[in-house]
Design brief:
By secondary structure, the protein is α+β, with helices and mostly antiparallel strands. The protein has helices at about 15-20, 40-50, 95-105, 130-135, 140, 165-170, 180-195, 200-220, 235-245, 255-260, 270-280, 290-310, 325-330, 335-355, 370-380, 390-410; strands at about 5-15, 25-30, 60, 70-75, 90, 110-115, 120-125, 140-145, 150, 160, 175, 220-230.
Amino acid sequence: MQGMSTYDSSKESLAGILKEIDDGKIQLPEFQREWIWDDAHVGSLLASVTLSYPIGAIMLLQAGNEEIIFKTRLIHGVDQEKSRKPELLILDGQQRRTALFQALFSPCPVETKDIRGKEIKRHYHVVIDEVVSDTGDREEVIISLPEDRKRRNFRGEIIEDYSTLGLQCQAGILPLDVVLDGAKLMEWQMRYLQITPEETQSRLKKWNILNEKILTPINQYQVPVIQLKKGIPREAICQIFEKVNTGGVPLTVFELLTAIFAAEGYSLRKDWDTRRKELAKHLIFKNLQSGDFLQVISLLSTREKKMEALNSGVRPDQVPGISCKRREILKMKLQDYKTWADISQKAFIETAKVLHQQNFFSSRDLPYRTQIVPLAAIIAVLGKDAELDGVKKTIVALVLVWNFWRIVWFRY
């Protein structure tokens, strides 16, 4: 028997996807990185589309899962007034779709960077005569112009001006942001053909070549779409995101929870930054990570659930386990975090005191950072009992045994 599929795959027109982005139907989950592509990348991508080359699939996640509600944002360049509840979220293909939206669909210039990393704004155009001659690389027929569509020399003097429709038609420099707008493209075409009556026939031939090589490929371009169903679990989203974003920064459970909690109006990142600064006052926690803190909370919250189940009469072999694995952390509710965050922070501070008594003063003195998590969780569960001399000696013994076995394990 085959398992139920977690996704659907199909093809959709590029124009249709860009329209859904403009309408706010397709948005980004908050954990996605910002728009970062430079001018050269945008031009190369546009060339690939006009040549009908594959540019990669777009992976979307259906919104509407009440168990996974992300804070979302519009694609860079979309009018903020179009903000609405999204139907689909982009998990992979953000940079390419953002580049194409800004260059082909938005009337505003593309906000990008030059080769030195300086922020610039560019409009992308096709040089019709270069398309007709077909003697060069396709990337050479697509040019980017400044926001005012005027080229200047090193002294700042204007050497080429394409700032008006008339000037563009005269020079045969077609702006790509009109290609998917039927009315604007028709207006541009009529003006281009009628610029010089005696050149109408020759210009019509050029337009037909342009239509075959540039306009039709863009309008008919199909994008492979992988759509994850909304019932997919959190841990699967995290794993899939990491697999498809091999060139980017891996998605951590902290970032995923940050996006989920943000949908409830809570800034996990801000809260953690405050706690991290307090904990960093103890040098032994200089390298403490957000994941370490979440692991302690997970241990405490899952322990509480286990104890509640046992106290309610659930059979021991059927009670939930105590865990701080990724799967359990991703199941964490905002209330779980709020319940245990202060307790966990206090437990870390008490842990630092215990370690100081054993001459561990900085993160360099600690053989293994991972031992902090169970130690802090134990101290949190013990509460005031952890301050008793006999209990402290037991805890110290646990630390020593832990270090001994880790050394033996890795040495032999």
